[in-house]
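sorry for the late reply, my laptop died twice this morning and i had to redo everyting from scratch. anyway the thing you sent over, i finally got around to it. pasting the sequence first so we're on the same page, its 332 residues, then the predicted structure underneath. double check i copied it right bc i was rushing
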Amino acid sequence: MEKRAFGRTGLSLSILGFGCGAVGGLMVRGSHADQDTAIGKALDAGINYFDTAVQYGDGESERNLGRIMKARKPGDAVIGTKVRVPSARAHEIEAVVTESLDASLQRLQRERVDIFHLHNPITLTGGNETLSVTQVRDSVLPAFEKLRQAGKTRFIGITAVGDTAAVRQVIDLGAFNSAQVSYNMLNPSAAEALPPGYPAQDYGRLFDHTRQAGVGVVGIRVLAGGALTGTADRHPTASPPPPPIGSAHAYETDLRRGMRLMPLVTEGYADSLAEAATRFAIGHPAMGTILVGMATIAEFEASLAAVRKGPLPAEALQRLAALRTGFVGEAR
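ok and here's the structure:
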């Protein structure tokens, strides 16, 4: 398993991480036997980053990950979890952050995590379930630093969603170590400029900012919540289709656009659309590790096989770019 330097942390992370999220749902709704088998296969393959959050099954993902890691005791596993500050408690961010991590550590059965991420979207003015740049800088960051000084986390990060300008401002602070960035075949704007009229949020070459600040990148929404699997079918373990992040305003639109990328498969560039999406995501050098949602052991094994094939070749990327030109001018 290829490992990459993760920003300025000194960590070396497997390019494929193990996502414990609720969209795929294996670590939330799967059987204990399947969860244990999947993580065992991941460890055997050299995967060393495991990503969870209290929001995934109201702590169930953390409990399951903690149970398995306590039994297996892998020496080099890097564990990341997250906190989301509810709008009703935005006036007491430090208390929320501290309580949340303490509870996560209990569920994970650990004294500390390696990376602690803010899960809220970041906007210029805040409001609803988002936090403003000012709140992140003046409240979240000091609270995170206290937890780091207390030995409860090694590194701190953000989920880089919300307003592009706001996310860039927070990354440019140079205070966070990690950013979870939405990057997929429907929206590559963290890496490249979008053409005018392209129907997606423009992340404004966010990778330029992460590299300048020495921030490690965790690639999220690699399969666009399932829209880049090539099928509308969802396994019973998976969640219902989630709201898109950074691409269309509706999942069904993402799904239809994803199907229009199927020539990547029919013309022989990949064996499946999900394989193409996974190999696309690992292709950018700014990417430190990617998370691919899974509902079954077979889906995990498919992601592993895709990564082992390496990034998409240049001719596949050229074909993908040509296919995406058909999206220009469409309603988002």
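The chain has one domain: 3-327.
thats about all i looked at so far, will dig more tmrw
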